[in-house]
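Form 7-S
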Amino acid sequence: MTKPEQKFFDFIRKHLFITLFIFITVISMLLRFQGMNYKSDDFLRYLNSWWIAISQQGIEGLAHQVGNYNIPYQIIIFILTRFNLDAVIAYKIISLVFDYVLAFSAALLVAQFRDEKFFGFSSVVTYSMVLCSLTVIFNSAFWGQCDGIYTAFILFAIYFINKEKHIPAFIMLGLAFAFKLQMIFIVPLFLYYYATTRKCSILHFLLIPLTDIVLCLPAIFCGRPFFDIFKIYLGQTDEGKQLQMNFPNIYAFFSDGTKRAPYDLLRDFTIYFAIAVLLGGLVLLLYKKPDLTNRENFLLTGIWSVFTCNMFLSSMHERYSYLLDVLLIVYVIAVRKHYIVAILCNLISLRGYGYYIFENYEAITVGQTSIIYIGVYCYVTYLFVREVVLDKKEPLKLLHSQK
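Output:
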């Protein structure tokens, strides 16, 4: 080996994790570029017409709702329509930018959890796993969806709550709420934290809608009625009108989800049942008083909370497990156990994306998949009770000391 070659490999070895960080960033961009021109059914039926409507209006158009996304996202689309961009590219640019924000937030959270530097082994692996996750790639680069936005802000909220910086944490939750109603899946976790640790105030929760209102102010100044801020999400809660929408939760086990009658019969039941299960979790936590300032307990409780919402609420889309899948990636890298849960959940989500993107092709039906998913949920519930509520954890030789 020549001296220049030796110097090259010495440099790579000395800066291995930074080199890997750069390499994964480049590779992940190349992977995403393959889907940039793909036009999903959602784009053809909804997003493109929304883009045309917004582009034909001036800033006063923000006074009126276009589509069913919340106001801050509509403001971003309005700004992008001022540039000479194809609609499909513009939508995906937003999502792709937040893919990297999401990967950064996940890596930052794992580095905090493991008490490592940001460019340490665990954080770089997390960054790589999130960016190279097929569901994350399909969600943004192919489908043009924006689930990475609210998920990134939720991870930042968890990061700040671990540092007991409650105001930034709840502002992050507010930012997440401003972009997606699915942010509510994580709210029970913060209510559990509030009730068991008593380290924050109920007033902190007011920062969530307040942050949303602040982000919506440009539209309010353009003449939009103030209460439109809340009507959008209220309208979304009654969309779909199906028990499940290609999502393998408990309702896929006994219904294909397409019939109106079961939805009308069970819609309110699904909401109350999910609340009852989540309240059951709260009762257990208040009774046994586990330490939710412990990062592992906090993260596993969040996973159970999100999984419970996915499992029991109606009208769940295949994309609604996005937050759960990312949390599981963070969890298994940080804690170094229960890998099978993360693998199964991400593979099951991939089935849903494949069904949508590849025109209703499925090697395994959503009903069959639900059997596995229900089993995984039962196992996660068992882990929540054993490791969080009863504090019976397996010894973790690789886990650094936690707060």
